[in-house]
Design goal:
Two copies of one chain form a homodimer.
Chain A: H1 13-30, H2 37-44, H3 48-54, H4 58-70, H5 82-94, H6 100-112, H7 114-141, H8 151-168, H9 175-189
The first copy, chain A, binds a DNA duplex through helix 2 and helix 3.
GO molecular function (chains A, B): DNA-binding transcription factor activity; transcription cis-regulatory region binding
Domain HTH tetR-type (chains A, B): 13-73
Protein name (chains A, B): AcrR family transcriptional regulator
DNA sequence: TCAATTCGATACGAACCGTCTCGATACTAA
DNA sequence: TTAGTATCGAGACGGTTCGTATCGAATTGA
């Protein structure tokens, strides 16, 4: 790779991190609706153009920031049974506190901007989906999933409940809920 | 009631309908992200102030428009079995075509504006949720739902999958999907 | 030394926001 | 008929954010 051997001033890693941190801070303090590129630049001590040079939109900044700090902690449990794996996956997912404002903001942006929606799906949503798909495939090999059950529908049930509760905030998203959901999915799969 | 016996020029029903229709037309033609109060007013041949006098935000206009034309077609099937009732409810729901842009726009707005989120939940989401809760209550009376199963979690499974597929648009939301989901829920409930 | 590139900063036009004002219109009450 | 009241369409207004363009300074490789 000759990527970082080009002439000219190199990209500032310090500024990059300052922008990502400023985006998360602004988002959690004032909410996604109040988030602006100008606000991020001001808090980061950077120019607007520096942001637009590297990210197509503020949503991409937030997505990068989240992926950076989450470091893709997609654990793929393998406890030997679908019930244990599912419960582990859900409890592990629900344990991540304080991410709701970020996730809700990213989803809102994805609903409004089809271009960003692709980024959001490919770089975040489908990653976690693939992890759970692996879990289901192992369960199918063990005969825990009936032949007439579409694994994709099971995936949609798990992530559907997860996102529905996250977005509406009408019911808890805790370990108890995780165990409940895991039990029902195991039963549905037969 | 003396409500429509006040002094002064009465509210124009024609203008009200023109605004609601203009909102839906603008939304479906250009998308929710491009929807503006100025655009609605221009297309409706109305003044901006006329919109702001009756609705707090553009999202409330869209919500009113949708509730107006949908006329709250919340059917509560009663076929004698949970399987049949669920399949009926889902197939009936999925049959409503062309509503995706409207629903996605309303959800996006609800995620960004907590005040509107309350309107959205109370005037739309909870209405359909109540209908399905009635279906589940009857099934419970018939002994089709195990005692250890929380009906609220079953509701979240149904609406979770519905909204997850609607928002992400990664899998079909057709009658086949409805039957599949109904089968799984019946199994989960035992 | 020189060309290339990024940096922070700021100016710019465009769009839309929500408020306000205007004269015209349509209704009630006296 | 007249006075009072509320709505109507239209548009001006200041404010905010957008995304682009431009500036001189800073930092690199050749």
């Amino acid at each position: 790779m000759t990527g970082d051997r080009r002439p000219g001033r190199p990209r500032s890693e310090a500024t990059r991190r300052a922008i990502l941190a400023a985006a998360i801070d602004e988002l959690t303090e004032r909410g996604y609706a109040q988030l602006s590129v100008e606000g991020i630049a001001a808090r980061a001590g950077a120019g607007k153009q520096t942001i637009y040079r590297w990210w197509p939109s503020k949503a991409d900044v937030v997505l990068d920031a989240m992926l950076d700090e989450a470091a893709s902690l997609i654990a793929v449990p393998d406890e030997g049974s679908l019930a244990a794996d599912l419960a582990g996956f859900l409890v592990d997912t629900f344990r991540q506190r304080g991410q709701r404002p970020v996730l809700v903001g990213l989803m809102a942006e994805a609903l409004l901007d089809p271009v960003f929606a692709v980024q959001f799906r490919d770089r975040f949503l489908f990653g976690r989906r693939d992890a759970l798909r692996t879990v289901l495939a192992r369960a199918a090999d063990r005969g825990e999933i009936a032949a007439d059950v579409d694994p994709e529908m099971l995936l949609d049930i798990v992530f559907g409940v997860l996102w529905y509760r996250l977005l509406l905030d009408h019911a808890p998203l805790d370990e108890e809920a995780g165990r409940q959901l895991a039990t029902l999915v195991v039963r549905a799969a037969r």
